[in-house]
Task: structure prediction
Amino acid sequence: MSTKANPTAPAAPLTHRRVLKIALPIVLSNATVPILGAVDVGVVGQMGEAAPIGAVAMGAIILTTVYWIFGFLRMGTVGLVGQAAGAGDEDEVSAWLTRALLVAGLGGLSLIVLQAPLFWAAFQLSPASPEVENLARGYLTIRIWTAPAAIAVYALTGWLIAMERTGAVFWIQLGMNGVNIALNFVFVLGFGWGVEGVAIATVIAEVLGAALGLWFCRAAFVRPAWRDRARVLERAKLVRMALLNTDILLRSAMLMVIFSSFVFIGARFGDVTLAANEVLIQFMYITAHAMDGFAFAAETLIARAYGRGDGRRVRRAALITGMWGLMICVVTAAAFLLAGPWLIDVMAKDADVQQEARAYLWWMVAAPLLGCAAWMLDGIFIGAARGRDMRNMMALSFVIYWGAIFLLLPVMGNHGLWAALLISFVARGVTLGARYPALERAAG
Result:
């Protein structure tokens, strides 16, 4: 039997301070991510050869893409755990973590077993020189053994976000990246282990991250429910989890296709335009990193309100987090308008690329404003665990994107490509917005 707190008891007020307490640690932790990538490339660059740099870059992007598939585990865990917490069902809060860790373990072991065909397929899609491929295989062969730990971090961070413990998420990220950076210097520059040293440093960091995550989630293991086999393997709960995660996975796959096609289609316009697009897409990543904290705040606050069956709290959570999200988008748009040319010059030294990027900069000024609704509504729907709506509205946006590509690309060229991308953002925001009233009514 579940042990529940009284879900009708007064809940903590939904305040701006509470939103910022959830959001700011995520924004800070996101800031550490590009630093690690730069150090990975920088330390192998000291070897004075091009092949090691290419090998680390290729190996990292392959595993990042593969692990990204399991991103559904973080999103699904936030919604399910947050709703259980909102309902006061502390046993289910523990049980959902165990279920998520089981999925992480099985997923990681599957990757280890399937590593040979997986790496073969990756190199078929992204062929490289024999030297780079050989070094990258060595890198991947080392790193793949911590796949269960790396994927478990998704589950653990999802649980912590649902429990409004984003400060712990920050320390996990900081610990992982800090140790990884330090060991990169020791293993590569100190011991001379090259590409393998970078891989070993990342392995140790991923294990540390999982261990830190388990420590921060230790409250879940105090209750016997986390190891109650009958509860954890309850068919109805597993089916709910599988359906939600499948919907989120399909939604994310369509989003990935949109961004991947943007790069591939942009390549048709030549190397200079391709490079300019790549520089400008970094502006969008900056916006996404800044927005993540407030989207995560929406996830957990909506989930808890949903768990309580309180539609009015759902609305207030949506409004207050949406207000902050809009503010961030306005600030980033203004920053790109004022500092965009300078940022372009920092990221690209080629004069032709700089000039080309400036020609499309205004799309980056528009992107945060046009994408704000979609990004914040994603967080709202994740918190409500309405994966089906996310999947279906993404499918509509996906079709609209390709329709815009078909109509605009021949007329507007690369401007048409940017227009199609932003139209897909607007379509996702509008379609999710149309489904929001049903989400609020379903909360009670």
Notes: The mean pLDDT is 89. The CA atoms of residues 131 and 254 lie 33 Å apart.
